Amino acid sequence: MANKEYGADTIKILDGLEAVRKRPGMYIGSTDKRGMHHLVWEIVDNAIDEAINGHGNKITVIINKTGSITVKDEGRGVPTEMHESGKSTPEVVYTVLHAGGKFESEGYKVSGGLHGVGSSVVNALSKWMKVTICRKGKVYEISFKDGGKVDKPLKEIGTTRSTGTTVEFYPDPEIFGNNKFSYTTICERMQESAFLINGLTMEVIDEEDDKRAEFKYDNGLVSFIEYINENKSPLHKVVQFSGEKQGIYVDIAMQYTDTYNENILSFVNNVKTIDGGSHEVGFKTALTKVFNEHLKSSGQLKGKESIEGSDTREGLSAVISLRIPEDILQFEGQTKGKLGTPQARSVVESLVYEKLSFFLDENKEASSAIMDKTIKSKIAREAARKARSEARAGKGKDKKEKVLLGKLTPAQSKDYMKNELFIVEGNSAGGTAKSGRDKKHQAILPLRGKIINCEKSTVADLFKNEEINTIVHAINAGIGNEFEPYDSNYGKVIIMTDADDDGAHIQVLLLTFFYRYMRPLIERGMLYIAMPPLYLVKYGKDKKYLNTNEELNEFKNTFKGNYTVQRYKGLGEMNADQLWETTMDPETRNLIRVSIEDSILAEKRVTVLMGDDAEIRKEWIEENVEFTLEDDYKGGK
Ligand code: 0R9
Fold it and tell me: Please, what is the average pLDDT of the chain?
């Protein structure tokens, strides 16, 4: 770059890109793995816009071996003409902040909205970027380096019969460290987009792990619901309706199954609204209203009887997809995952009210199955409420204290987010953990009885389960729809079980519970699994804890001299000091943070593995689980 002279315009542009590099969080939310994937969504969204506008119906994403990523569309190609500034249009699009808007024709920007920050932001945060454009019979290329500086200006490099734009970029390691792109995360997002945009083919290729997936659906949201409910038993065919009011276009599909949980997914301009918002409120309000009216007119509800919203959503899977013009688009919340636009509420509410009432009147069989389920939910909910209030009224003590008395050993600090709750398998390990812990910040809750499989239980059964009740009261942040992770008594909830089959079983039951009833705890990264070591090896006066069979093999292969190996089967085999040192001390322990990488897949897994249908479970295990002998490493068969 030596001696290169910049004009005033160029300096302004570089200042703009530099501002992005100084404060990436302002543009893409964060510089972790999630932020790095935002770069991909940004470029993919531009490709989707072109497809929605009717140009090209296939988008390909390639995770390259080198760590760069390629996004390719088959649209018209970014215009290559000279811009009035004397630069080529692609140079402007990829270096000027918010340049896209200046070229936009009306209604251009259809996808995005959540981020929608522009391709230049991706360029600013990349070590290098290369854009290849096939347009009007010719191939053009332009490349950038070091956060958006032009490396080679736009140049015609050949001829072609195809059209489209290909963007390849390498996120700057100075900003994103050595984070890697996740095939699963990208697949989830591409599959979602394929569901939301009829006929669009989304291809994902992982060159590093030699994996490939293609998603294309011709029945839009109906296909989406069929996919979500694949392993469940539906009560009726998928209901789908769409309509437009006040410039807001609404598309909804829904179906009830014989399960107990609700699964509502919502999207705005093809981006998931993870925290819901006005559209979901409108949907739920309409559901409650329609169901109450329907049940009153059929005589299933009498006088002042009514059902609550939650009754109408037991076993419901629904996808709500909105297109909202940019000028009235508002997002709220810490991660901007909640739709604010107030009109969305009334538009969705009136549409759902009208169409769902019609559907229920016209489809007697489906409506009676759905209404029966709702009434059952109401009865179960009232029974649970009664049981709870009787338990409370019976004894003088405050309910929460009573439930926790003699079970929870609390932490002393009132700095809740710094506190940790260890849910420990068994009383004896609980006792060891109690003496080994850091009293200030660590609380211990030993589990005595069995945890209920909440995938096979109603909410009412759940409240009758003492262990679950204790956990709910200890965390003290509500449950189900009312769960609020920021009210939690603990910043970390840590499941600590033995490293054996029973321990794994308890883990799965607890994870199912947290997934179904305290999911935001997982989404906010507050749920962990403790990893007690598997082995203690002693040599001379020294000792070492080993966490896996691989570590043990490595030790055996490299250590010269005498040693003994002790296999820990249970937490109870360790004394308090050992448990602290290996599993509880924040300085030395290993924790696994529980996360949901692919939420739809997670939903399906929980249904298959924890649900009623043993046949599907057997099939899944046969297809997906590799059986190995635990003691294989001994090689002593
Ligand atoms: C692989 C990722 N794809 C893109 O980023 C992409 C942007 C883009 C595009 C147009 C077509 N395809 C695209 N792919 C386009 C073309 C025309 C008009 N508008 C958009 C046209 O042929 O007239 N553009 C997005 C912004 C712009 N082009 C520009 F106009 F600002 F340059």
Answer: 87
Nearest CA to ligand 1 atom 5: 46
Its sign, for the CA torsion 241, 244, 246, 252, is positive
367 to 252, 297, 352, 372, 517: CA distances (angstroms): 18, 13, 15, 8, 27
Q: In the sheet that 271-272 helps form, which strands lie side by side, from edge to edge?
A: 239-245, 248-256, 316-323, 263-268, 271-272
Buried b (16+ CB within 10 A) or exposed e, 141-151: bbbbbebbbbe
Cβ of 89 less than 6 Å from ligand 1: yes
Q: What distance in angstroms lies between residue 89's CA and the mean position of ligand 1's atoms?
A: 10
Q: Is the CB of 43 under 6 A from ligand 1?
A: yes
Ligand 1 centroid distance, CA of 221 (Å): 27
Q: State if residue 165 touches ligand 1 by the CB under 6 angstroms criterion.
A: yes
Please give the residue that has the higher pLDDT: either 499 or 301: 301
**SS in 3 state form for 599-621?**
HHHHHHHHHHHHCCCHHHHHHHH
- The span from the CA of 477 to the CA of 485, in Å, is 6
Determine the distance separating the centroid of ligand 1 and the alpha carbon of 73, expressed in angstroms: 10
Q: Is the CB of 129 under 6 A from ligand 1?
A: no
- Domains by residue range for the chain, with CATH: 8-215 (3.30.565.10), 221-381 (3.30.230.10), 397-532+578-596 (3.40.50.670)
pLDDT tens figures, 462-503: 878 889 989 998 998 888 777 888 889 999 999 999 878 888
Q: Which residues pair with 140 in a beta bridge?
A: 133, 156
Which of 46, 71, 80, when mutated, tests ligand 1's pocket best, judged by the most ligand atoms within 8 Å of its CB? 46
Decide: 88 in ligand 1 pocket, CB within 6 A.
no
pLDDT digits (tens, 9 = 90+) for 127-163: 999 999 999 999 999 999 999 999 999 999 999 999 9
Instruction: Return the pLDDT at 256.
Output: 97
Rounded to the nearest angstrom, the distance between the alpha carbon of 133 and the centre of ligand 1 is 10
- Which of 78, 142, 165 maximizes ligand 1 atoms within 8 Å of its Cβ, making it the mutation to test the pocket? 78
Residues recognised as catalytic: 425, 498, 500, 502
Query: Would you give the DSSP letter of residue 276?
Result: -
What is the pLDDT confidence band of residue 190, given thresholds at 50, 70 and 90?
very high
SS3 annotation, 183-244: HHHHHHHHHHHHHHCCCCEEEEEECCCCEEEEECCCCHHHHHHHHHCCCCCECCCCEEEEEE
Q: Looking at the DSSP assignment, which residues form a beta bridge with residue 156?
A: 140
